[in-house]
Specification:
It is built from six helices and six strands, in the order βαααβββαββαα. By secondary structure, it is α/β, with parallel strands linked by helices. Strands 1, 2, 3, 4, 5 and 6 form a six-stranded mixed sheet that branches. The protein starts with a strand and ends in a 14-residue tail after the last helix. Bound molecules: iron/sulfur cluster.
């Protein structure tokens, strides 16, 4: 069993609790698609742009510094990952995630991308020793598109929620047993791990 698992498992766990088991216990990873490669290139472009962008709209003044591709790790939580960008002020930080597609659901508890960004916020708080005020999901601009973003305040309730989510994933990894899944057929038919789930009767 690994001591630390990638933060991306938080999003995948929300899709199906079996994915952490396949990834971490069976060593089965998802497919590397051409879309992932394109996403990587877009991310690199956004990292350049973010250094030139104004963040006055947040209402905190401009940040003192912007770090990009920030490696984060928490020994206490046992997770690691790379945050796209961190905006740093004297007393607080804001975590930025670049996304090509983002569906802002009303309830952040049902949004894997939001939860992943909240997990980065927890790790960044540990690393920078500053509170993260909010997460900023910044949509990657395609040709001639306007800058679009979503903001979510980071609260203690959300911090505790993410901590519990991380513990649930860790429990699955510790058990080393295929967990039950209530995933509906509509989910399973689009899942990369379907070949490994022989109890899906449809
Ligand atoms: S096929 Fe269905 S049950 Fe199996 S991992 Fe995917 S979503 Fe979960």
């Amino acid at each position: 069993m690994m001591d630390s698992f990638p933060i991306s498992l938080i999003r995948q766990f929300l899709f199906c609790p079996r994915i952490p088991y396949f990834n971490e216990i069976r060593g089965i990873r998802g497919l590397h698609t051409p879309w992932a490669e394109l996403g990587k290139l877009n991310h690199e472009k956004e990292e350049e742009l973010v250094q030139r962008r104004s963040f006055e709209f947040l209402g905190f003044g401009e940040p003192n510094r912007i770090d990009t591709s920030v490696r984060l790790e928490s020994k206490s939580l046992g997770v690691h990952g790379v945050a796209d960008a961190i905006l740093i002020w004297t007393d607080f930080i804001v975590v930025v995630e670049f996304k090509t597609v983002f569906e802002p659901k009303k309830n952040w508890r049902k949004n894997g991308q939001t939860q992943q960004a909240l997990a980065y916020a927890s790790l960044a708080e540990e690393r920078y020793n500053k509170k993260c005020r909010c997460i900023l999901i910044s949509l990657i601009r395609m040709k001639n598109q306007k800058f679009r973003y979503h903001l979510l305040e980071v609260t203690d309730e959300k911090r505790i929620f993410i901590q519990k989510k991380i513990e649930s994933i860790r429990d699955i990894i510790k058990m080393e047993k295929l967990p039950n899944s209530s995933a509906a057929p509509e989910k399973c038919v689009q899942c990369e791990y379907l070949n490994y789930c022989n109890d899906r009767n449809f």
